[in-house]
Specification:
Blueprint (H helix, E strand, L loop, with lengths): L3 E7 L7 E8 L4 E9 L3 H11 L6 H25 L9 E4 L2 E6 L6 E5 L2 H8 L3 E2 L4 H5 L8 H9 L6 E6 L2 E7 L6 E7 L2 H11 L17 H8 L19 H8 L11 H5 L1
Parallel strand pairs: 1-4, 4-7
Antiparallel strand pairs: 1-2, 2-3, 5-6, 8-9, 9-10
Helix pairs in contact: 2-3
EC number: 2.7.1.170
Protein name: Anhydro-N-acetylmuramic acid kinase
Organism: Klebsiella pneumoniae
Amino acid sequence: MRSGRFIGVMSGTSLDGIDVVLATITENMVAQQASLTWPIPHAIKEEILAICQGQSLTLSQLGRLDTRLGRLFADAVLALMRQESLKPTDVIAIGCHGQTVWHEPQGEAPHTLQIGDNNQIAAHTGITVVGDFRRRDMALGGQGAPLVPAFHHALLAHPVERRMVLNIGGIANVSLLAPGQPVRGYDTGPGNMLLDAWIWRQKGKPYDKDAQWASEGKVLLPLLQDMLSDPWFALPAPKSTGREYFNYGWLEQHMAAIRGYAGRMFRLRLRN
């Protein structure tokens, strides 16, 4: 692999912003140089949420959103380049997996769909873009998610120690790093995504900064037990999931039996 500076672009299931990172990467080292978070406009976020929860749309609408999101990714990269006074020739490539709007790894024809046209990023930044990271894995019988175990292995694998890394993003996942064995990883269930969905609906905020809102609540064991009774949690690993399954509608179903509690009572449990 050619060593040098690369830019990574990430927009996860929480939709709390576009993370852009500049890193120097060699065969033996990954070093972060700079980063920023670029906001996702309210209208685009609402369109993505609607698709993820099964709302129908035309191919024209999907195509327009794909282009707009690709340009938004490009704007985020350009902002980082201005911040760090970078020229296109200073960066070897940009990695962008896009925004997942549907992920269905089970069934007769497993599939996953990401939008955010990488051609827009390449055209507006002048830098080669690498993407479409998930579907080859699915074609070979994998889940197409999570992606982060490969990074955890490159950064944290040890020649003697067995290590486990828990990543709590919108969807939580775990990486199993055993000496001399292939890396394993799988989703463990919703992470911040349900809390983000709840505070977005209740307060109009993208996330619960510093857990300020969650700290006012307490664990409701009946709610916790009801959530954990979902059949997905009993599925064997490896497995993956997304917003098309764990979404605000799923949350409302489990909350329906205990509507008498104020909204603040749910926050800590979602945080955990």
